[in-house]
Amino acid sequence: MSTLTIVSITLPLFVGFSIYLFPRLDRYLALGVALVSAGYALQLFVAKSPLTLQLLDSFGVTLIADQLSGFFIFTNALVTTAVILYCWHTNKTAFFYTQMIILHGCVNAAFVCADFISLYVALEVIGIAAFLLIAYPRTNRSIWVALRYLLISNVAMLFYLMGAVLVYEANYSFAYEGLSNAPTEAVALIFMGLLSKGGIFVSGLWLPLTHSESETPVSALLSGVVVKAGVFPLMRFALMVPEVDPIVRLFGVGTALLGVGYAVFEKDTKRMLAFHTISQLGFVLAAPEVGGFYGLTHGLVKSALFLIAGTLPSRNFKELHHQPINTSIWIALVIASFSISGFPLLSGFGAKVLTMKNLLPWQVIGMNIAALGTAISFAKFIFLPHDSQGEGNVKPSFWLAMIILIGGLILANAVYYEAYTVKNIVKPLVTIALGWLAYFLIFKRLAIKLPRMLEQFDHLIGLMSLMLLLLFGMVFA
Amino acid sequence: MLEACIFATILCGFFGIILKKNLVMKIISMDVMSTGVIAYYVLIASRKGEALFTPIIPVENGIISHIENGAYSDPVPQAVILTAIVIGFSIQALMLVGVMKLARDYPTLESSEIEKHNTP
Predict the structure, then answer these.
(1) Contacts of A138 in chain B (CB under 8 A)
(2) Fewer CB within 10 A of the terminal residue: chain A, N end or C end?
(3) B10-39 residues labelled b (16+ CB within 10 A) or e (exposed)
(4) What ipTM did this prediction achieve?
(5) For residue A435, how many other CB atoms are within 10 A of its CB?
(6) pTM above 0.80, yes or no
(7) Which CATH fold topology does B2-118 show?
């Protein structure tokens, strides 16, 4: 089992570079790596006891592979497979697949590592690979968006590094467990780095522009799995160190509300999905012990939605209301939207019920409002006009990707089938009905454009210092 | 004292990233900040400046001479920060290539100008 872990972590990196040596085999190699990851994740589900590895003596790399990492690795594998299939007939070069597989490997590494330095290395390589993927079209805009992303994530990681050394100073070890007796400023600095990297709360406001301006497959990858690499360590900390658990939960609620608050007013499809990523990450953090399942369903549904949004004739909701879309695309869109709103029969329902059940009493109101906001904003997608000759430039491999993602959503119901009780089923239906009502009565007519000032580069960096102060306050309290 | 200098460096870099208008200057400020962080690792490794010797056991005439416990610096943070240095400079190289591409259309490289043209 330990050999298997090491092999499945290193394989993507080896194969990633060999794709460049065998450019003709690029897609097949990439697909193979994604399938190996999926197999490894399934293996983690079967193995009941978590595996802890300490490589290279006492100052070396620490790995923990348990079911929580299994959920996230499985998400990563499915999303990567779907994106590779989606790109199958586009003329992406071997370079694109190389970066994608390196990204895949590093995200997996972030999901199993259990010491601060391995996490740092994984997150930085994720930053570089994501930079190259975002800048792949080589237009001015893509380069600027990529530069902005890399600068922000690198500054955040510098704060994180300072926190990491303070943990070392207190424990003479970089392992996660050291966080419990580390000084408070270490916790604040590390959290600040991870919150920025994972797109949580106001330090995540870099995310909408980055995710909406990237190419369709790249947005699907970024929103589906890459942001989770920053969120996953926070969940691990919350589970390992009880003192930080309330902080993580509070950020979960705050993020969920902030994300939907922006999303309900958004008039652009991809930006709305990006804001929704922020809010759904809040759901993942709100109940860290069951966040794995929520992460899985969110990864599947969000990458499906981004891939669908890429085939729609326009990005503006107003224009989409005058241009009927193809019915088959509309059906896929509706299934995904229902899942994210928490409609029964799709795994989004099970994940929402499980998360709601594990909330603390003070979180319940906030999370219910966030769920209502989700239903409101996805009503925009569900009530788009459609007919059988409608527009939509569907690539041939698009449906294969959809089968994997939506099939995954339906099959994942099995994880938590106990959710199907009358009480649990009625609640999301009421939420969705209320959401649609609010959409038709209020939000459809509303034309408020929220200011985007906070998304400017200088403000984003400035917000980091404010976040740091806030975190200091929270940790001291 | 040393610690204060290091934090001043980090803050200088951080404010440089916010206040400098030119994109190249922003990247250099980021480098200043990362230099500060690296220096902080070195400082922690030397136990706040008290143990500056490298952890090499001195051998004189084939005899391992005794060194006082704690008189040498801790090698682990130094080894770890080496990774961060490498990652830091590769990221900078990558960013500068991006800036070179942008410089063709925005010769002044003012970030506010680039941002205005490239945000929808």
Answers:
(1) 101
(2) C
(3) beebbbbbbebeebeebbbbbebbbbbbbb
(4) 0.92
(5) 23
(6) yes
(7) Helix Hairpins (1.10.287)
